[in-house]
Amino acid sequence: MGCVGVSEKAGVSARGAVLLGDSVACDAFDADRPLRVVTHAHADHLVGLRRSLKSCDKVLMTAATRDLIGVVNGSLPLDCGSVELLEYGEPFEYGGERVTLLKADHILGAAQVLVETSEGKRVAYTGDFRVDGTEPLLGCDALVVEATYGSPWFRRAFKVDVRELLVSMVEERLRRGTVYVFGYYGKLQEVMQILRRADVCVPFVMPERVFHVSEVCEAHGMELGDFTLSTETEGQVLLDEDLPCVAFYHMNTRKKVGLRSSRICVSGWEFRSACRQIGEREHLVAFSDHSDFCGLLEYVRRCSPKRVVTDNHRSNGVTLAREISRRLGIPAVAMPG
Ligand SMILES: [Zn+2]
């Protein structure tokens, strides 16, 4: 660990646990930490959760995150006594430390984590986030930042509104029949909500797991309208006959379904243009649930912490740490080193 980790009680372990204060490990298991925080339901933030559920005093998360994990990862014992559900802004006290989850604009239920230590230090972790909808954590002694798009190459400098583009692409393609949308859990549901809010009223069809994730999103306040299972007769007929509907599938099934229909893949890993053709009837749309490089810098600038640690476990944090030091004049290190 560099001096940042030792002096400010914030760091990232070799296994990807974001360590805050004396008690808290976020997003991976750590044998020495009695509190585990799950910032959101994506798999790279659930590392060792089964062990945490067994051995930690408490496992903290939002109710939406618990429900999403329940449908995507059904075998985990989430009803064991250690799970503690927190609202955004509701403090949890443990051994002289106070842990608070604050909203992060990423997927449903996603949180930033603030720990106020017994010595009066404020140490925090962003989790995954988009800068526009995420309130900056102010007055931190140390801030751990995600680094997914932490290199100057990863900038989305498009002039177009990607949400509007998505709506117009779907509407245009619906005239020819079914439109398949491929993406990850959480983001697919965000696309559904964008389309519904733009008055796209055709049926939404989806396989079982996407369906259950959608049910959770709706139970927690997202507006997805009616949606139907691809295995039920209505959904089957719509897809078999290529009728106007939007079919939502996980990115992993892209090579297997909807091969003869219009297809839209939503991905954050696209920086050249807002939309790019990648197949005969297939387009990639640059719709991300992460900040790009400029967004990461902007967030750190707004927070203005005393020190920064970049997550060098889930992505390459070295460049981001260097750019934060150089451009913002804030000491920053990548961890684990
Ligand atoms: Zn994520």
Enumerate the distinct ligands: zinc ion
Strands of the largest sheet, in order across it? Answer: 7-8-9-10-11-19-20
Strand content: 15-25%
Distance between the termini: 7 Å
Shape: globular
Report the order of strands and helices: HEEEEHEHEEEEEEHEHEHEHEEEEHEHE
Strands, count = 20
- pLDDT averaged over residues: 95
Quaternary state of this entry equals single chain
Helix content: 25-40%
> Helix segment count?
9
C-alpha Rg (nearest Å) = 21 Å
Low-confidence stretches: none
Which structural category do the helix and sheet elements fall into? alpha/beta
Largest sheet: 7 strands, mixed
Structural write-up:
The structure is a single chain. This protein starts with a helix and ends with a strand. The strands form three sheets. A seven-stranded mixed sheet has the order 7-8-9-10-11-19-20. It is α/β, with parallel strands linked by helices. Helix content is 26%, strand content 24%. The longest helix has 13 residues, at 162-174. Bound molecules: zinc ion.
